[in-house]
Design brief:
Length: 265
């Protein structure tokens, strides 16, 4: 039986107040240069994004491929530094009930990693309401990262739970902003990578939740699926030019692997 570990899956209420994101975020140049990045394992894609740097919040959206990418990175972060990893565990908050341990294990096998060891180093907690998700992010995530020594936090399908029809939209948006502010503060304070995904292919620039996320995260990568390729649009980055495009024909090798494994299932 495939196993993976979970952290604090108790249902919890929410009693939080909004916390201001860090105002001062200056660091010494030597500290920035010495930071290790997490890489995708595809030369062109890594050159395009310059890797995933600890201390930043990343948003991947626009396609179900974002889930596959997050699982792939959850395996790659466990690799040693020479192979583009961070020798790290992972904290995975599953807001879409979509975490697939079998798919993660298959990615591990591609790197000749023991499947049980791969899954033992991914700590998963599921949220089923926007209140639970906000509580996990604001109250539990930072502690979990420290306890498990994780350099990568994944919040999967981060927007959908905040579309709860039983909660007033304005209240959901307020909760979402609280969660976003906490993600930014935690990434900075813990010097970790926070990777949020949205799998909804129909999100538009007018969506209030997407707009709130874009205002607060550091890096935004949009996925557009084509018949024979995937178009990656870098919408926001602190050092790369905004509006940069990556158009590859055929689909980038790293994404071909995602699709192959997904098709096999």
């Amino acid at each position: 039986m495939v196993r993976y570990r979970c952290f604090d899956e108790r249902e919890s209420g929410l009693s939080v107040c909004a916390k201001s994101p860090e105002i001062l975020n200056f660091r010494k140049v030597n500290e920035i240069k010495s930071e290790r990045c997490l890489f995708f394992g595809d030369e062109l894609l890594d050159r395009f994004l310059l890797g995933l740097r600890p201390g930043y919040v990343f948003l991947l959206y626009g396609s179900s491929q974002c889930l596959a990418v997050s699982l792939h990175l959850s395996v790659r972060v466990q690799l040693d530094l020479q192979k583009g990893g961070l020798e790290s565990r992972v904290v995975f908050i599953d807001a879409g009930n979509s975490f697939d341990p079998y798919l993660a294990a298959q990615y591990g096998e591609k790197y000749a990693l023991d499947r049980d060891r791969v899954l033992d180093r991914i700590f998963v907690s599921r949220a089923f309401t926007c209140h639970e998700l906000t509580s996990l992010i604001t109250e539990t995530l930072g502690k979990a990262l420290r306890e498990y020594g994780a350099r990568l936090a994944v919040i999967s399908d981060v927007i959908e739970l905040y579309r709860d029809p039983d909660v007033r939209n304005i209240r959901c948006l307020d909760l979402f902003k609280i969660a976003l502010n906490s993600m930014v503060s935690i990434a900075r304070a813990e010097k970790t990578i926070v990777l949020a995904t949205s799998l909804n292919e129909d999100l538009s620039g007018l969506d209030l939740f997407l707009r709130a996320a874009k205002e607060r995260v550091d890096v935004i990568l949009r996925f557009e699926e084509r018949h024979s390729s995937t178009r990656l649009i870098l919408e926001k980055h602190p050092t790369c030019s905004t509006g940069s495009l990556l158009l590859k024909q055929p689909t980038p090798r790293v994404l071909e692997e995602f699709l192959e494994v997904t098709r096999d299932r």
